[in-house]
Design brief:
Blueprint lengths: L2 H21 L6 H18 L6 H23 L3 H9 L5 H13 L2 H47 L2
Length: 157
């Protein structure tokens, strides 16, 4: 992927996610911060195209978006889901869902089954990436909080 293509993909993903911040009625600095997660995730997805496995691409890109969301949530004391929902928009397999339903309606059972399994695998990769990062963040935060509390009790404060 060339630099011009990377910048173009970043900008298109940012504008698409920016539109959703307005639809979701976000306010203030979140209108500009939330779409960054989607742009970064989309760039990661495209940079991992060499793997040839879109499920792996979605999983890793989702983990990056989830890390961004959790970090922004901690920095700005806002819900992580606010950043996460907007950030995952470019990764949602919308075309796959459309074609799965098209195959179901047209009666093409083989294509429907293959497409359904693939869409469910991508959705599972998205869910697994979110759960993994969220769980790790919570574990690290609890460890850090417990350690800080222990230090404060030793100093008598």
């Amino acid at each position: 992927m060339h630099l011009v293509e990377i910048i173009r993909a970043f900008l298109f993903a940012y504008v698409a996610c920016l539109a959703f911040t307005l639809i979701y009625n976000m306010r203030g600095r979140f209108i500009l911060l939330a779409p960054l997660g989607g742009s970064i995730g989309w760039i990661i997805y495209n940079l991992l195209a060499f793997t040839g496995n879109d499920i792996l691409q979605n999983f890793i890109a989702t983990m990056v978006v989830a890390v961004y969301s959790e970090t922004m949530a901690r920095l700005y004391k806002a819900p992580a889901t606010m950043f996460l929902i907007v950030g995952l928009l470019p990764l949602v397999p919308g075309a796959g869902i459309y074609y799965t339903m098209d195959y179901a309606i047209s009666g093409n059972q083989i294509a429907f089954g293959q497409s359904l399994v693939h869409v469910l695998a991508v959705a599972g990769a998205l869910a697994l990436g979110i759960v993994l990062v969220s769980s790790l963040y919570r574990l690290c935060f609890q460890f850090w909080f417990h350690r800080k509390k222990k230090r404060l009790s030793k100093t008598g404060k």
